[in-house]
Amino acid sequence: MLDFDSDWLADHKQLLDAFFERTGKGMFFLAGENFGGRPKTRLPADLLPYQPVKSNFAIVTQETNLQLTERGRIHPLMRLSEDGATTQRLLNALPPFAGFLRAENLRPEATVIGIVPGAATPDQSIPILAAQRYRNGKIAILSAFPLWRLDFLAKSINESDSTYNKMIDNLVLWLVAREDVERVTITPERPIFIAGESVRLNARVLDESYIPIDNAEVEASLSSRQNPGDSMVVSFRYDRPGNYSADLHYLPSGEYEVKGTVKREGVAIGRPSSSFIVEPYSLEDLSQTANFDALKRISEVSGGQFYAVADTASITQFSGLAPKTFTSRSELTLFDNKFLLVFIILMLCTEWYLRKRYQLL
Fold first, then answer.
1. Could you tell me if 250 and 274 lie in one domain?
2. Do residues 103 and 137 share a domain?
3. What confidence category does residue 228 fall into, taking pLDDT thresholds of 50, 70 and 90?
4. Are residues 239 and 194 both part of a single domain?
5. In sequence order, which residues have a C-beta less than 8 Å from that of residue 79 and are 6 or more positions away?
6. Same-domain check for residues 154 and 209
7. Are the CB atoms for 11 and 44 separated by under 8 Å?
8. What would the mean pLDDT of 40-67 be, rounded to a whole number?
């Protein structure tokens, strides 16, 4: 929408509400000199992320660039590069705006993307670019003017892929994207796992324009509902743009809760959660018959040989075993053994006793 006036918004408030409610689309407002120079007593209070001040000093004719806020560095409208610092350098290289409007009444749910540089504290900053959810749609407002001035630099050097064009592309994509699915999710590969089985957790991270994010930091806290105090932190690895995963091993049986935190450049952009169950029985309980294919594979990998029960007699051929005879020799001196001497004396005494008893002497 071009530079509008507040009376038009007030007169068409119901039509705008119906548009956002029915279509779920977005709208971009350019608040320039036309808007700033008109009375704003009828301006709807909830439609815009913020409102220009109602005094006659709303318009400030002072050149200014766009300084990104912490949230603005990761907002899809400013997806001009892979990191916020590079994006800010690209914005600083653009021609400055000729002026801006003083703002007030910033709505709590609004996201301030850009401000006038030079504010001593965040509370004293003047927003010039912000966005918010409105009913089923989205609204963005730029209160620095004129916008077309940013395109002068690219036109002067015949550069088609300019920062200005990227900003417009991001704006259109963000406005038309409908949020029919969750942008940040963590889900288990299956809702139920078996004891001893690896648990795979998959995370999906998209920005507000549903473009995959490849520089997110994904962590999750895993806790058992049976032992809530016993928790662990899981770090996800990057698989491909917008997709991250983590593998968990040797989890005891029970019900588990996953509470994730997703950050981008240190700023939290989502806190997804999910749950899964680990059954008490193991993989061996599913089938108690021999898995011959698995046994053959194990023997091949370990350098062994697989034998069925009927072929166990031929195991010795594979092992290379041959019969061997072992001879052991030892010597015993009789008269040096006191136990043998006692035994001989006892035998002689027994013989003498028997001869005497039976009168064989």
1. yes
2. yes
3. confident
4. yes
5. 87, 166, 170, 207, 209, 211
6. no
7. no
8. 81
Same domain, 251 and 134: no
In DSSP notation, 74-137 reads GSGGG-SSSSHHHHHHHHHTSPPBSEEE-EE---TT-EEEEE-TT-SSGGG--EEEEEEEETTE
Name the pairing type of β-strands 127-134 and 111-115: antiparallel
Asked if 236 and 245 touch (Cβ cutoff 8 Å), the reply is: yes
20 lies in the same domain as 145:
yes
Residue with tokens 């899809």: 76
Helix (H) or strand (E) holding 14, with range, is: helix 13-23
Q: What is the pLDDT of residues 286-331, one digit of tens each?
A: 666 777 787 788 888 887 777 777 777 777 666 666 677 888 887 7
Helix (H, G, I), strand (E, B) or coil at 327: coil
pLDDT-derived band at 361 (thresholds 50, 70, 90) equals low
- In this structure, what token pair is assigned to residue 146? 């004129």
Q: Find how far residue 207's CA is from the centre of its chain.
A: 13
| 29 and 164 belong to one structural domain | yes
Helix (H) or strand (E) holding 279: strand 273-282
Which of 159-184 are b and which e, b meaning 16 or more Cβ less than 10 Å from the residue's Cβ? eeebbbebbeebbebbbebeeeeebb
Element (H, E) at 22: helix 13-23
| Structure-token pair, residue 51 | 């409102």
Mean pLDDT (whole number) for 127-140: 91
- What is the Cα 234 distance to its own chain's centre? 10
C-alpha–C-alpha distance, residues 186 and 195, integer Å: 21
308 Cβ contact partners less than 8 Å away, ≥ 6 residues apart: 292
Structural domain range at position 340: 333-361
Instruction: Kindly state whether residues 19 and 41 are assigned to the same domain.
Output: yes
Q: Does residue 299 belong to any structural domain of this protein?
A: yes
pTM value is 0.61
